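Ticket #4471: structure output looks truncated?

Reporter: J.K.
Steps to reproduce: submitted the chain below (241 residues) through the standard prediction queue, then opened the result file.
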Amino acid sequence: MPTAPPTSIDADQLPQGEAKAEAVRAMFDAIAPRYDLVNRVMTFRMDVGWRRRTVRALRLGPGSRVLDLACGTGDFCRELGAADLRPVGADLSFGMLAAARTSAPLVQADILRLPVATATVDGAVCGFALRNVVALPPLFAELARVVRPGGRVAFLEVAEPPNPLLRWGHRLYFGRIVPRIGGLLSDPAAYRYLPRSVEYLPPPDELLEGMRAAGFVGVERRLLSTGIAQLITATRPRPGW
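Returned output as attached by the reporter:
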């Protein structure tokens, strides 16, 4: 998440390609120390329940190995561990990994090029990071490579409520209030960028079709909390499905 200074991001322009990757890395390095605090405040702790629901949606048995993509400070890793799953976190930002509060194994890596052997994990989760990768098709292809047949993936991401009145209120809060909260508690430029970064996300139908094109089946999208967040799940097919 043009080029930006090494510790900030230009909230008025949306970088593309490798410039985006470098800007996102620098931004998350800068906001890592207070990232969890800002998340809890701006979502009124709803993000905790969303993660738990995402982990349940994997429907994987105890001991399953699950990748936490763009793991940040390890929120998902902790939820996965509490569900008797075996998490492994990967993040591009060393600052986020350094601030992580989890005992799970962590690796600094670009999630478009995972240092993971083919078909060796049972599942993967990703929280609020789809809009931060350089491109989504390579991410879906990489997941199709590393997740075993029968394995599951679950993405938690921001969304807009379908109800017009709720959508108006959400845009006001997300576009005006969240940047002020982030500016008071952390890096102002990063949290001005956050609402704009939603523009990176394709329309829901296009996003789901991208997963199907990568070979996933049973692709589903559910809206959470009146539609301010979305949960997308899918399965790697077994031979003969």
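Triage note (M.O.): checked the attachment and the full token line is present. DSSP finds nine helices and seven strands in the chain.
Status: closed, working as intended.
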